Structures are given as C-alpha cells and as structure tokens.
C-alpha cells in the first residue's frame, strides 16, 4: 500500500516461516521509496491480508484474515498507537490448523475507510456480509448481510459516492450508493433494523470467481480478474455491462491500474501447481 503522498510503501507479511499454521501474529513493513530503505517493521494480527490508509494519512488499518480482527494504527511515524478490534468473536487460532486460506473464520478481506475517515468497511467472505468499525471510538458496531455472496474486494469511487465490490462464490461485481451505506451505519449505531436489500446492489453476473477489481481514474471503467476462466473483464460502470474480455495468465488474482491509466498489471497465483505469473 502506497501512502504519505507516495513517499512510503507498506507491505504485509502473510506469516513467519516458523509459524506454519499462522497461530501467531505477523508483521507490516514500511519502506522509504526515495532511499529504498526499510524504515520500520510493526507487529500485526494473524495473516494481515489488506493494508488500507486513511485519506489524511493519519491512520492505517490492517485486516487480519487469520483471526477475525482489524488492527488500527495511529501516529504511524512517531511511537505509533495500536488498537486491536475483533469482529464479533475472535477466532481461536491456537487450536486451528490445516489450510489457513480456508480455515479463516469470517475470512475478513476487502477494506476501505469511509470518505470522512470515521468508519471502516470490511468484507466478510466467511458467512458473507459487510462489517463496520467506528474508527473514532475504536469499536466494532455491527454487520449487514444483504450483500452479494462472499464479498472479497472493496473499492471506493474517486468521487466517494459509490462503493464497488467483487464476489467469489456468486461471481459478480456490484455497486451501491455510499449514502445507503451511511444510512446502514446509522441504523447499526441506533440498534435499528438494517434497510439494504439485495435489490439495492446494481450487480453484474460474470459466472466466474471474481477476485481483485480496480477503477480507471475517471471511473468510466471497472476492471476485474476472473479467476476460474483466466480472463480480465472490462466493465462500463454506468451500464454495468461487459465491454471486453481478454485472456490472461492462468488463474488471475491481483490487479492494478497505473495513475495515468496507461498500464494495467495482472498477477496470477496458480492452482495445484498450474498457472501463475504476471501479465501487463
């Protein structure tokens, strides 16, 4: 994750090499992009999948795939403060083993700060839904579950008006007006019934496990990696219709678009010893 006006790069470690079952916390490293120097390594929860920076660069959130928790960091450059926040019940990682990509509790992943930096939205792939964190008071306030099945990646539009998500099980990309998300946050804080239904999501069925998504800078296009069919989809964000599909290296997962919209990079993880690599 780039931060601080692109002067720093933050990188999460999946686990330590001596911790095969990810039964301990991991770490996050900060690099100086000018000097190429390692500035600091700070501890995190188990399997920090996503690192997200607030728009004012004052807070960093790490989303822990391995134990149903979020880490919030403040004063990052001066004896940082750390807050560990559980989503509902913490996962007993001391008793867990096996494939930790699958044995992950709520399998927390996609994470964005709301435009005002007061809340954190986190996708729950396990059990499905979106969880909400009160960043100011450092507490979990609740989840909504009328969300397309197994939400994975979250992206906020450049104008902060629309939230996009991808789903693995249902193979969709979807969008919703951020005003409806704010209404749900207020409902959760006031202990009233959530109002969002599946019909509130404008969704496009892609019939393939959708992994990472990214927007063009003008928000005209949404790009999505289609893992099962090894394709890159280009979607018109207004009509939510597919414009093009392109074959890429087998089993794509990661995706990024350059700032000037000139380059798009795709990384592929591979399955059962097959596929993997990159495509630009």
* Total beta strands: 23
How many helices does DSSP assign? 1
What is the ordering of alpha helices and beta strands? EEEEEEEEEEEEEEEHEEEEEEEE
Q: Which residues sit in consecutive blocks of at least 5 with pLDDT less than 50?
A: none
- Please tell me what the overall shape is: globular
SS strand fraction: over 45%
Q: From the alpha-carbon coordinates, what is the Rg to the nearest angstrom?
A: 18 Å
Q: What characterizes the major β-sheet?
A: 4 strands, antiparallel
- Helix/strand/pairing class, anyone? mainly beta
Straight-line N-to-C gap:
19 Å
Helix fraction by DSSP (H/I, runs of at least 4): under 10%
Which strand order does the major sheet show? 1-2-3-4
Average pLDDT? 91
Structural summary, described in words:
With 280 residues, the protein is mainly beta. Helices cover 4% and strands 45% of the residues. The chain has one helix and 23 strands. The chain has a four-stranded antiparallel β-sheet, with no helix packed on it. It has a four-stranded antiparallel β-sheet with strand order 5-6-7-8, with no helix packed on it. It has a four-stranded antiparallel β-sheet with strand order 9-10-11-12, with helices on one face. Strand 5 and strand 6 form a beta hairpin. The radius of gyration is 18 Å and the shape is globular. 38% of the residues are buried.
